[in-house]
Structures are given as C-alpha cells and as structure tokens.
Amino acid sequence: MSVEAGSTGAPVPYRAQVVASTPDASAWVSASAGSGKTKVLADRVLRLLLDGAAPGRILCLTFTRAAAAEMQNRVRRLLGEWAVMPDENLVAAITGLTDRSPDAGTRAIARRLFAEVLEAPGGLKIQTIHSFCESLLGRFPLEAGIPPHFEVMDDRTSAEALEAARDGILGNARDGSDPTLGEALDVVTGWIAEDEFSELMAEIAGSRGRLRRLIEGHGGHAKAAAATREALRVAADETVDAVIGDACAEGAFDREALRTAAEAMTRGGKQDRTRSAAILAWLEKDFEDRVSGFEAYTRGYLSGEGT
Predict the structure, then answer these.
(1) Alpha-helical runs (H) found in the chain
(2) Tens of pLDDT, residues 177-210
(3) What does pTM read for this prediction?
(4) DSSP letter string over 159-195?
(5) Confidence band (pLDDT; 50, 70, 90) for 152?
(6) CA-to-CA separations, 211 to 45, 100, 164, 216, in angstroms, rounded
(7) Which of 67, 202, 224, 291 fits 62 for a cystine, CB–CB 3.0-4.6 Å?
C-alpha cells in the first residue's frame, strides 16, 4: 500500500503534525487518544522558542496535571539534548521538527534555549487550566472579590467543610430556627432513603453554582421553580400522585388491548409470563388498588433498575 508523501517525502500524517505545530498558524486539532496531540503541542512550544519567542511569554494550558508534566518533561529533555548533541544530529532533530534544514543561527539558538528556559522567571508556563486560573486570582484578588492571601482547599478540606455545612443546615432544619428549611427537609426525606441523603447533598453541593444562577436569574426560588415547571411542561398541581391517578383512571388505558397482549405473553418465556401476570392482576383491581399497585404493574414494562 502506498502512502502519500509531502515535498520532503514525509508521510501525510507527519506533514499534518508539522503544519499543526507551525507557530504562526492558528490550528484546531481533533484526533483520537494516543495519536500524538500532546507531542504536537510540545513541538509547537519548541518551534516558538526556535523562532525567538521569550520563554516567559509562552502560555500553554492543558486539562490534566499528567499532560502538563509530560509536556514540561518532553520540552526540557529535548532542549537539554539539543544543547550537547553533535551538530549533524542537531540538524536532523530540527529538520524533523520544522521540515526545513536549520542554518547556523538557528542551531546556535537551539543550543542556548535550555539555559534560557532554566533562567526564565517562573520557567515555561505549561499549566493546567485550574492552576492558571488560580495564578490569575492570586495576582488580582481584589478585582475578583476574594481575600488577597486566599488558599485553595484540597479535596479532604473541601469535603470536611461541606460536611460541616450540611450538618449546620440539618441542625437548623430540625430545631425549627428556619421553618422554610424544615419544610424543604420534610419534602426531601419523603423521597429518598436515609443512606441516600449524603449522596444527594453532595450532588447539590457540586451543582451549587448552577443552582444559584438559576435562582438569582429568575428572581427567587418560587420563580425559578415556576420556570422549571414551564420548561418541563408540568403544572403546579401536577404531582407524581396526581399523574399516577390520571393514568389509573378508567378510560386512560386500553383495557382490552392490554388484556390481549398480556394473554399472548402467557405463551412466552418465564419473564414474559411474569410480566403478563403483573399486567393481568393490575387490570382486575379497582381504581384505588390500581393506584397503590402501580409500581408493581410497571414492572411488566421496566427492568429491575427502572429503565
């Protein structure tokens, strides 16, 4: 199988990496895992340095600490090798990086880069997005509205603070000092088991920014709830019990078609027969028993996980 090549005889995938790492090109790279995206980004940093960019004026952001460390190590290792490798090897390395043979001036720059990067204040800025944002907040705390000497919580401290806040909320709800909070707790405890409460609180805490924007954006809890009901097309009086009641009312379902389907299922396998029995039993109930037995009835259609 032949492979299309560029002007230097390099395969097309290599040529695409060279183009993507060109310093004066604005590039968007989309590729699968392990295809060399981090290498291309590191190559771009190296080419910026070769083209005369000051190390302190390069900012490279990644999502993970592992990717940032990998890039830092790759760039420093290559610059260290360039500083001491034989001239012919250096020419080959730079040609492979830039797709053009370096002149004597470029080779001299390449040999100085390792020392320049080490001496640059703060070194090369290859950071995660989180650490970059933290550094910005550290430089402009007053503009951001935070204390000048703030510290970022680690996961353990954050978890302890959230747990203390949760306990405080529960205490206020139980002792009656906040009646609204007590009413809200009554609603929540009616829907979840005791062992699920911590998980729910953690989920709410993780979404607290979005919830706050929702509430403030609509001018309060009541209006936010109304907007949510409107988006879901659910009336204020349309509770779960009311919806189930409507579904169980005579005429809301096709009794004869359900009976025919359930009787046909009795000739199927074990699971079909079990579901058939649940449907037929539900059809024989009166309205109130259909409501109370609705969950058992739905097992004829849903998996054990409710899907």
Answers:
(1) 12-20, 37-50, 65-84, 87-98, 104-119, 129-139, 141-144, 155-175, 179-189, 197-206, 208-217, 221-232, 240-248, 255-265, 270-283, 287-292, 294-298
(2) 888 888 888 888 888 877 788 888 888 888 989 9
(3) 0.53
(4) HHHHHHHHHHHHHHHHHTS-HHHHHHHHHHHTTS-GG
(5) confident
(6) 40, 54, 20, 9
(7) 67
